[in-house]
Amino acid sequence: MNYSKKSTSRKQKALKSRKSKMGKKLGVVFLKTLLVLFIAVGVAGLCGGIGIVKGVIENAPDITSASVLPRGYKSTVYDADGNKTAELIAEGTNRTYVKLDNIPKHVQEAFIAIEDERFYDHNGIDIQGMLRAGVKFVTSGFRTTQGASTITQQLLKNNVFDFMSEHGMLEKIERKLQEQYLAVKLEDIMSKDEILESYLNTINLGQNTLGVQAAANRYFGKSISELDISEAAVLAAITKSPTEYNPIKHPDANKTRRALVLKNMLDQGYISQNDYDSAMEDDIYARISEHNEETQSTNTVYSYFVDALIDQVQKDLVEKAGYSATQASNALYSSGLKIYSTQKPEIQSALDEEFANGENFPANTKVAIEWAMSVVDKDGNTTNYSQEMMFKYYKEQNSGYEPLYSSEEEAQAAIDGYVATLGITDDDTVYEKSSFIMQPQASMVIEDQKTGEVVAMIGGRGEKTANKTLNRVTNALRNPGSTFKIVAAYAPAFEELGYGPGTVQYDGPFAYTENGKVGRLVNNWDKKTQYRGWTTLREAIARSMNIVAVKTITDVTPSVAIDYLLRFGFTSLQLDGANSDAGQAMALGGLTNGVSNLELTAAYAGIANGGSYYKPKLYSKIVDNEGNVILDNTVEEPTQVISEQNAWLLIDCMKDVVTGAGGTSSAAKISNMTTAGKSGTTSENRDVWFVGMSPYYTAGIWVGYDNNGYKHELSSKAGETSFHKKLWSKVMSRIHQNLENKDFDKPSGIVQVTICTKSGKLAIPGVCDSDGRSGIVINEYFADGTQPTETCDKHVLANICADTGLLATTMCPNQIVQSKVLLPPMQSGVAEAVTLDTAYGISSNLQAATCTVHTGGVYLPSIYEQTGSAAGAVTPTDPNAAAADPNAVAADPNAATADPNAAAAADPAAGDGTAGSAEGQ
Ligand SMILES: [Zn+2]
Ligand SMILES: [Zn+2]
User: Fold this and answer.
1) Residues near ligand 2 ion, CB 5 Å cutoff
2) φ and ψ at residue 209, rounded to 5 degrees
3) Does 295 have pLDDT greater than 50?
């Protein structure tokens, strides 16, 4: 290390400023003379009133009793059980407010005896003391101005003038006069007790200890109320100069001054001779040093919860309490706030413990590097190096390079290897910052949906070594994958279109519309070509089917979906421009910026709370050191985003995700508790999520690699894409173990109807249940008013050629009547593919579905109505119209007779596009 350059420049600076000081010397002599005059004038002014002084007084700052309220108090954070969890301390302050009633009389008297013996008699200024000090000032050769300040003046000095600079003697004199003037004024508006209380809470008692309570803690490990006379005198002795009379660093100086304090107390009649003698005999300094070692604490690292809480309080002080940013920060760190957080300690510790347990995470944890270096050469030129530069260097050597290491040693070797290429010499000064972060990372947050209160959070795994490190609950924006289907597609469609768990969409080849044209095919997450055909939204949610979700957001439109997402509290959406999130891919969580775990979990909590969304709260209320409530979060009203009924229906579908057949997240089941939720995975396994709820709590977990700029994939083989559900379940099972198992409250206005799962409409007995499969007819819940009144329009009884299985013509010798499912026409430009319905269906392109063996007969789409039913028949509709809306295949049930000409006129190409193929990817 070479600091010579630095120290030289500092020396030069010192020389320069010394020169300018010398230049002012003459003026100082003149000013000193003036000072004497001004003090005289000042005294005269206060007694009789003189013009010059009036001007000075008019310039004095306004004061109220609030002006002298002590600043520099630490704020205290309490958890939901009232335990102190953190103290927020501005750099260099340590203060605790205490009422005068709790300060023993002898402590008050010790300070009065040494600092202001006529405190109870004067009106703010001590004329007698001032005259004595004035004489002393002149006789000492203008060396000292100490000794004349009353407690009232000292209070003003500490609290009104503390941030004001005093440049030059004139300003000093002006300040002094103002101080005297204001001291008199202050005595008019505050009682002696109020002044003394403020003073005792304000004084600097050494080592950043402000106020007598903090000092009692610091030096004696006691509350101020427990201090005896001997101890009180130690504190009063510090006041004259917190540095020189510090009882730990300068016990001898303090001892001398303390003796004077005790002598004054005796002389002024505050203590008896016995009290004096025993205090003088007390070997108090041994106790002080002893205690100091115990309380010596290093800087505390706040938890992720407290980090996030600080951000929220700061924001709310500005937005709700009207503070400026600076005032908010001052209030937070130095005004003695009591912050009642919503954190529940037993839930937080369950979360912390499960995250600290390595067995809950996949083996072979990797290490990521956070690194930066500045090199200053001997000429003072600085070169900065970043981790990105290092990664680039390695990437050039090996295109497959990924900045992940299997151990810290390996990571350090990589840093060393790179640094070795930088040509650093002994003449250079090197500043390096490096840390290793465990990967993959994870975060989890738990909210009480009934209140919006966040009860626990953890923003990362591994030891938290500093404040404001990356909080992956609040500050990491990641794509939410399929967890977004619920909030972006289904919730808006339920609310806007009357969709429900029984609504059907066709799971078959489907392409995004890109720039008005047929674009990429939507792939289902399992990347198989196994399409499921007509599917209810309930099944689509349980199986996390992409195509159904994209069709649903298409129906409700992405722009309407955005409105809902904003009301669900998402603040990171890209609302306009080329990268706007308002597209079909939003249904699958394809977002430009991503979302935070906190906002995603809070949106789910809104669903769990009957569709009523609370902005997540980290505190219930904030009280200032006067006891006034300055922010009350418990009165915040929620937003009803979706109806209670639709919220309950969504939850009922999400129960199937965990406990239903084909559900994707059975691993997340909370032991002995009703569980609902939704998983999410983003492309290339960059992120995995599970957000779910019980009737008590909603929680979200995220796992991924911090560095999203690289193609870091979670390995499903290594269990990296599945352990999070078990971890979620483990944490939730612990926090629910003493809670009664119950179901989500079912609101009124829910009806149950027997439907056909191929149409979502009333099932036709003997038709819907006889297409050759079981489980087609089910009981399904609907929000009252959205239940179907029409019968199934997807099942038809058709005349089938028994030889070919195709629609019969008049030439087919063997004809049977069968129940068939109508397959919708394909999206224009998208090729048809086999679905689970193909074998049981007939194409809506009737011509193509007609028997190809017994040809030459009269073309006859042999579709008959179900006997005794008005429905069950189909009128082939215009395939072009059908292509625009797959659901429009629905025939008019009253049109009992098929129109053969309409079918003959059907354009065979409509359902047989050429572009795109159903590659499974
Ligand atoms: Zn049916
Ligand atoms: Zn035939």
Assistant:
1) 801, 804, 812, 851, 854
2) -100, 115
3) no
